[in-house]
């Protein structure tokens, strides 16, 4: 994600939550560690670790209220972007419709894979962002 500040959902002390611009998985978010020199999850400070679990729980609950997913995947990879961040990926056993778009989890029951051809219109992306923000305590 290039300039993803416009995708911010919520700021915490150590983490920011952003809507991912590719919504191939409805409600997919990025958790970004605010510490500039943060690289690896295993090197997160105790404060960052503790807050991360709070963020994950709150985001999971907000996602349940917003879209009612059936499962969640969490990925901290760092292969392309060398900064401590994670992907929050709601998973769905059946199709979901939101803002006039049908979202289908083609890989339900298997590891998630980003569909780079999936394009989310900006107005729909904003509606998804606002829906999660509304439900994130």
Structure report:
- The chain is of the alpha+beta class.
- It is 26% helix and 23% strand.
- It has helices spanning 46-67, 122-135, and strands at 8-11, 15-19, 29-33, 71-75, 85-91, 96-98, 101-103.
- The strands form two sheets. A five-stranded antiparallel beta sheet has the order 1-2-3-5-4. It has a two-stranded antiparallel sheet with strand order 6-7.
- Helix 1 (46-67) crosses helix 2.
- The longest helix is centred in the middle third of the chain and has 22 residues, at 46-67.
- The chain is globular, with a radius of gyration of 14 Å.
- The mean pLDDT is 94.
- Which runs of at least 5 residues are low in confidence (pLDDT < 50)? none
Most strands sheet: 5 strands, antiparallel
Helix content: 25-40%
Text of the CATH class? Alpha Beta
**Alpha carbon gap, first and last residue:** 25 Å
Question: In CATH terms, what is the fold-level topology?
Answer: HIT family, subunit A
The number of distinct helices, counting runs of at least 4 residues, comes to 2
The strand count comes to: 7
Q: What portion of the residues fall into strands of 2 or more residues?
A: 15-25%
Q: What's the CATH H-level superfamily name? A: HIT-like
What global shape is seen?
globular
> Mean pLDDT, nearest integer?
94
Order of strands across the biggest sheet?
1-2-3-5-4
Q: Report the order of strands and helices.
A: EEEHEEEEH
């Amino acid at each position: 994600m290039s300039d993803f500040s416009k995708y911010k959902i919520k700021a915490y002390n150590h983490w920011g939550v952003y809507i991912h611009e590719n919504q191939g998985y409805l409600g997919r978010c990025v958790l970004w560690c605010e510490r500039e020199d943060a690289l690896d999850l295993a090197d997160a400070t105790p404060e960052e670790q503790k807050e991360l679990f709070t963020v994950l729980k709150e985001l999971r609950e907000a996602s349940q209220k917003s879209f009612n997913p059936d499962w969640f995947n969490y990925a901290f990879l760092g292969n392309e972007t060398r900064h401590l961040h994670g992907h929050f990926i709601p998973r769905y056993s059946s199709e979901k419709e939101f803002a006039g778009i049908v979202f289908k989890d083609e890989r339900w029951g298997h590891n998630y894979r980003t569909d780079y051809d999936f394009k989310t219109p900006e107005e729909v992306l904003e509606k998804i962002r606002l829906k999660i923000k509304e439900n994130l305590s």
